[in-house]
Amino acid sequence: MPVETNNDKNSAKPPRIRQFGGSLLILLSLLLILNFIVPSFFEARLPQVPYSDFIAQVEAGKVDRAVVGGDRIEYALKTQTPEGKTEERVFVTTPVAIDLDLPKILRDHKVEFAAPPPNQNGWIGTLLSWVVPPLIFFGIWGFLINRQGGGPAALTVGKSKARIYSEGSTGVKFVDVAGVDEAKAELEEIVDFLKNASKYTRLGAKIPKGVLLVGPPGTGKTLLAKAIAGEASVPFFSISGSEFIELFVGIGAARVRDLFDQAKKQAPCIVFIDELDALGKSRGGAGPIMGGNDEREQTLNQLLTEMDGFDANTGVIIIAATNRPEILDPALRRPGRFDRQVVVDRPDKIGREAILKVHARNVKLAEDVNLNVIAGRTPGFAGADLANLVNEAALLAARQNRQAVTMADFNEAIERLVAGLEKRSRVLNETEKKTVAYHEVGHAIIGALMPGAGKVEKISVVPRGVGALGYTIQMPEEDRFLMLEDEIRGRIATLLGGRSAEEIVFGKVSTGASDDIQKATDLAERTVTLYGMSGELGPVAFEKTQQEFLEGYSNPRRPISPKVAEEIDREVKQIVDNAHYVALAILRQNRDLLEQTAQELLQKEILEGEQLRAHLSQAKAPDEMEEWLRSGKLPHDLARVPTMVV
Ligand code: ADP
Ligand code: MG
Ligand code: ZN
Question: Fewer Cβ in 10 A, N or C end of the chain?
Fold first, then answer.
């Protein structure tokens, strides 16, 4: 990736200023210290005489001149050198208290006396003692502020830290962004607004003020913004929402103001605010942590004010990106603000292939690599995942000292990304290994019979990733955007297949199925509370809106009566129990196949491809399966059927 380059206008100079300021400061402090130390250094060498001796010398008429200060008297004695010359020697004494008789005594003995000059340190000292302390103060302050954010110069607290990209300086072009064609088309239009504004304004059209890029993480929102900067021949300011949020309340707001001031001066231009959600969270929303919320609100309010405050046709377009549109303050999405939303979604198969092509440009591919096949095997991968995949494959090839990246490297890389690293070092004992083998084959046999889940590609008893002791990989043949009722049932049964196999073979279960059970139960619950698939409860939503992009995040249920809660629980249990029953029925029907396949898996550790298909194609469906897939119901009353076969 090309590194973002900062425009020299904004960032090259300030460090020099700061450096200069720093050395000036040190020089001044040194001067001040010298100014104080040097005179007292000399003074200290004058011989110190007791006050009483001084008075005695005055009365003896030996003292010629004296400089009388409040706490120090310097005086000169006339002394005769052995050679007979008169010589002046200077002494110092400290008066006991303010001696009001002293002037009289001095006058009486004809001593020439004076007070010390008003300032002992000289004018430089005075100046420095006024100038240096504030300088030191500001220096430390500026240092702290800078360390916090690396802002331009020491004292510009509220200055925006927006980086300005000049044309093309990001090194990213639209061709580097693939698989998000709709978003690209919309943004190309925006760039055109700026380049040929008159074409639109001539007809009275208003150029949009704000465009919000919305999409899951890693789909290329930031990349798109950089591409705009690379393509547009206008200045491009870029700042991240989290950069607005600073320690001191009010600075975020000042930054926004400053950013817009700069932008308006440079119009037409583009302002890009990344991670808008860091700043635009719903006001009055959840959990204010002392002060933090306050700051964000101020910054957000300032942003809203600024967006309203300029005319649409000044030629400043604000583009913002977020992966959590649902938490944004509604005020941000009002017309006249971010009124355009561009969805940057996960790519489909064709898109994935295009993205793979973009990233494979810099990688040496072997003959056998087929990006189309890889795209097919990576449903749900976002652009960032695909970029990572290509890199991971290249790393694997490099580790093997290969000349080019092969298809095998890609396959291993996909598995790594899906299931984690292989952990051959984790040694299972015999019982564990057997348990894992039957468990995985249980998943595989049921998975092979269920609709819509794709074919089982691989079973392995080599531990991988964080918790997986073995795994079964099932690849969908195409991208799917909906799941049908029967497919969900099939999925639940497949998830329970591992545990069911343990029950049938060993007569006792292990802890290894907890994750499967969790997923199966979640899915069953969602069919009731979210998808309205329960016959008893009907198409009623018992859960509030779904989080759009964050998976695994479940919102609280709507307020429901205890009776309904009970019914939901019963329905969920019914669905899981039925699926479990069918899973057991299938495995009992295919008991021999389960045995053979597991034994072979134990021997080879990994089963895949033709070998695996030869086994799984023998799986037979029991009678009740079709009916259950269709209706979710079993032909007889479950309560009378023992689910555990010892
Ligand atoms: P987002 O901002 O949406 O979270 P980024 O733009 O930061 O995602 O994407 C991270 C990286 O993933 C990019 O730098 C790029 O290498 C890769 N990437 C993501 N989406 C795409 C895409 N559509 N085309 C090509 N590369 C992509
Ligand atoms: Mg981003
Ligand atoms: Zn399992």
Answer: C
- What's this model's pTM, rounded to 2 decimal places? 0.65
Nearest atom (ligand 1) to Cα of 216:
3
Neighbours of ion ligand 3 (CB under 5 A): 498, 516
Give percent above pLDDT 90 in the chain: 26
Do residue 628 and residue 482 come from a single domain? Answer: yes
For residue 389, is it within any domain?
yes
Which residues contact residue 206 at a Cβ distance below 8 angstroms, ignoring those fewer than 6 apart? 312, 313
Q: Which of 275, 353, 440, 502 is catalytic?
A: 440
Cα(218) to ligand 2 centroid in Å equals: 7
Average pLDDT over residues 250-255: 76
pLDDT at 10 over 60: no
The ligand 1 atom nearest the CA atom of 178: 24
Which tokens hold the place of 457?
Answer: 């590609």
For residue 187, being part of any structural domain is answered with: yes
188 vs 181, 216, 531, CA distance in Å?
A: 10, 21, 38
DSSP 25-55: HHHHHHHHHHHHHHHHHHHTTSPEE-HHHHH
Higher pLDDT, 551 or 511: 511
Give the closest ligand to the alpha carbon of residue 276.
2
Q: Report pLDDT for 154.
A: 35
Mutational pocket test of ligand 1: of 174, 175, 223, 358, the residue with most ligand atoms within 8 Å of the beta carbon: 223
Statement to judge: residues 82 and 208 lie in one domain: no
At 12, is the pLDDT very low, low, confident or very high (cuts 50, 70, 90)?
A: very low
Measuring CA to CA, which residue among 584, 444, 558 is closest to residue 504?
A: 584
Residue 65 and residue 196 share a domain: no
Is 149 in the same domain as 212?
Answer: no
pLDDT one-digit tens code per residue, 429-466: 888 899 999 999 999 999 999 987 778 888 989 888 76
Q: How far is the CA of 357 from the centre of ligand 1 (A)?
A: 14
Q: Which range of residues forms the domain containing residue 365?
A: 349-419
Residues 6+ apart with CB under 8 A from 178: 347, 351, 354, 355, 357, 358, 383
Residue 544, pLDDT above cutoff 50: yes
Task: Tell me what pLDDT residue 338 has.
Answer: 83
Is 440 among the residues known to form the active site? yes
Ligand nearest to the CA of 342: 1
Residues 574, 632 within the same domain: yes
How many distinct structural domains can be found in the chain? 4
Q: Are residues 103 and 176 in the same domain?
A: no
Taking ligand 2, which is a single-atom ion, which protein residues have CB atoms under 5 Å away? 222
How far, in Å, is the centroid of ligand 2 from the Cα of 392?
Answer: 21
Mean pLDDT of 504-522: 92
Whether 180 and 225 map to the same domain: the answer is yes
CA 40 – CA 328 distance, rounded (Å):
67
CATH classification of the domain holding 588? 1.20.58.760
Backbone angles phi, psi at 399, to 5 degrees: -65, -30
Higher pLDDT, 80 or 561: 561
Task: Name, of 301-310, 450-459, 612-621, the range with top average pLDDT.
Answer: 612-621
What ligand has the least distance to the C-alpha of 2? 1
Lining ligand 1 with CB less than 6 A are 1, 177-180, 215, 217-223, 321, 355, 358, 383-384, 387
